[in-house]
């Protein structure tokens, strides 16, 4: 894909993700998108607390962030010219996110076949040396062209 076409494609992916209701509801923002890599941030919110006694964000919100970021990495991979859906996603929760801190996910689409793309992702808070969660997964590649 030509560099200009790739940039236009990545912009379309970014707009598509920004229009997803649950991504908006969780206030996710796209920090980086391109070349099979994505970075997204989800700010801390009391609405996302899973344990009121500790103020820790619910694991489902972390999962949604990782899944969305991974899908974005697939969609912006230069070899991908199709829509995608999560086929499987394994998430290992390493520790609770620190209450009051944003969570940032980074995902890389590292291998693409004709019908499946593979990802690795990590979620961190301000302590970027200690991941909150890591993920590996596979995404289907539907053979319908993206606009």
Describe it for me?
This protein has helices at residues 3-18, 21-25, 59-75, and strands spanning 29-34, 37-42, 49-51, 56-57, 83-93, 103-112, 116-124, 133-142. It has 147 residues and is an alpha+beta fold. The chain has a 6-stranded antiparallel beta sheet, with helices on one face. Strand 1 and strand 2 form a beta hairpin. The longest helix has 17 residues, at 59-75. It is globular and about 50 Å long. The mean pLDDT is 90.
What is the gist of this entry?
The protein has helices spanning 3-18, 21-25, 59-75; strands at 29-34, 37-42, 49-51, 56-57, 83-93, 103-112, 116-124, 133-142.
Which secondary structure elements does this structure contain, and how are they paired or packed?
Layout: H1 3-18, H2 21-25, E1 29-34, E2 37-42, E3 49-51, E4 56-57, H3 59-75, E5 83-93, E6 103-112, E7 116-124, E8 133-142
Antiparallel strand pairs: 1-2, 2-6, 3-4, 5-8, 6-7, 7-8
Instruction: Could you tell me the CATH topology label.
Output: Thiol Ester Dehydrase, Chain A
CATH class: Alpha Beta
| Order of H and E elements | HHEEEEHEEEE
Unreliable runs, pLDDT <50, ≥5 residues?
Answer: none
Q: What oligomerization state is this entry in?
A: single chain
